[in-house]
Design brief:
- The protein is α+β, with helices and mostly antiparallel strands and 318 residues long.
- It has two domains: 116 residues, Thermophilic metalloprotease-like (3-Layer(aba) Sandwich), CATH 3.40.1830; 194 residues, no CATH class.
- 26% of the residues lie in helices and 31% in strands.
- Helix 1 crosses helix 2 and helix 3 packs parallel to helix 4.
- The protein is globular and about 50 Å long.
């Protein structure tokens, strides 16, 4: 294990999860991410009162529940770190642990590069930008999203909870991605319309060889066009069913150190990007409950909030 990874793991637990010496830590991992899981566990042995390590089979898709036994174990500690290939962020297991006051950091697809890059960002810069965006979105009814690649779509934020994810989880029941840097919400169901041209990456697929075009009608993806990866996305959604096609999330990246590398944990945090997700959004205040959540990254977008320009070609103008 490299010294850089060891230091990043210590930073993650101390400065982002804010673990103290009287707390207990559970690290959940799987075969493809166990090097990160081990690094976090060994760091936890240095900091926490007790640290536990458990390795499970890799989940098939983002949002799929962990085994029931692990879900129950998550409720019994102070802090849980989910260093897994697929995301546990939007699972009932994560939500159940949070309701019990557990701080849960999810790290889907985490690798050493992400650890070393993203934890190098100044958390105060992320917090400052997130606060600005959160205040703007709280007062926003309609967002219009466009891009030079061909995106043109509208979403309603009216009455929706606006969530700031900074990666710093210090309060009882806090949860989110670690590392992080995004502001997001669940758009009002059945009213999103337009066309998305996703040209960055897609969760569960990786970097895109060519753009994927998604037509949205009344809150649902109705057509998905492009190459082999577009067909792969369509098959992933079709496997779950109709509500997997529902627009679940509108998110804005705010981490200046993150780069689009094909891992959604990092990709959706990249400053100057927007991501639209399909599937489950219950954990962010939405009404869609399906065992899948797939984020699609749009590079260098522009968007307005009730007609006011907030981002122009990937650059904030606020």
């Amino acid at each position: 294990m490299s010294t850089k990874l060891q230091n990043a793991a210590l930073l993650a637990l101390k400065d982002y999860m804010c673990i103290t010496e009287d707390e207990t830590l559970l690290v959940i991992t799987d075969a493809s991410t166990k090097n990160i899981g081990r690094a976090l566990y060994e760091a936890g042995l240095q900091i926490a009162r007790e640290a536990f390590y458990i390795e499970m089979r890799e989940r098939e898709v983002n949002g799929q529940e962990p085994p029931e036994q692990i879900a129950e174990l998550m409720k019994t500690v102070d802090v849980v770190m989910c260093a897994t290939a697929k995301s546990l962020t939007h699972t009932k297991a994560r939500m159940g642990a949070s309701k019990h006051g557990v701080r849960v950091g999810t790290m889907p697809g985490i690798n050493a590069g992400i650890m070393e890059r993203c934890f190098a960002a100044n958390p105060n810069d992320i917090i400052s930008m997130n606060e600005k965006l959160q205040q703007i979105l709280k007062a926003t009814k309609e967002i219009t999203l466009t891009s030079k690649a061909g995106t043109k779509a509208t979403f309603s934020a009216s009455g929706r909870k606006i969530i700031s994810s900074t990666g710093v989880l210090k309060n009882i029941g806090d949860s989110g991605n670690v590392p992080s840097g995004e502001v997001y919400f669940a758009p009002k169901e059945d009213v999103s319309n337009g066309r998305l041209v996703c040209d960055g990456s897609v969760a569960g697929i990786g970097l895109l060889d060519e753009p994927i075009t998604i037509d949205i009608v009344n809150g649902f993806a109705t057509k998905i066009k492009g190459g082999a990866q577009a067909k792969q996305l369509e098959e992933m959604l079709n496997k779950v069913g109709h509500y997997a096609h529902a627009v679940a999330e509108f998110g804005i990246g705010t981490n200046p150190k993150a780069k689009i590398k094909g891992c959604i944990l990092e990709d959706e945090k990249v400053l100057g990007t927007v991501h639209i997700a399909f599937g489950n959004n219950q954990s962010m205040g939405g009404n869609i409950n399906v065992p899948i959540h797939i984020d699609c990254i749009i590079k260098s977008p522009s968007f307005t909030c009730d007609g006011k320009l907030i981002m122009s070609d990937g650059k904030f103008v606020i």
